[in-house]
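## retry 2 of 3
previous attempt timed out at serialization; input unchanged, resubmitting
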Amino acid sequence: MLASPEEIASDVEGVGLDSADLRKVAAVAADRRTVLDEVTRPRLLTGDLWTVHCATRVSDYALSA
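## retry succeeded, writing output
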C-alpha cells in the first residue's frame, strides 16, 4: 500500500506535473501504517479504480460471462 502512492507521485513528477497532493496521501498512509496493516482481507472499493488499476485500451479487458 505504501509503495503505490510514492510510485504514482514519482511518475507524475516524471512528466513534469505537481505531485504535492499525492505526496500528502503517501505521508498519511505511512503515518497510519498500523491501521492499514490491520487489513487482512482485501476488498474492492469504489475508489480503487485509480489509473494504476485500470486498463488503458479496450483490448486490455478480458471479460467473460
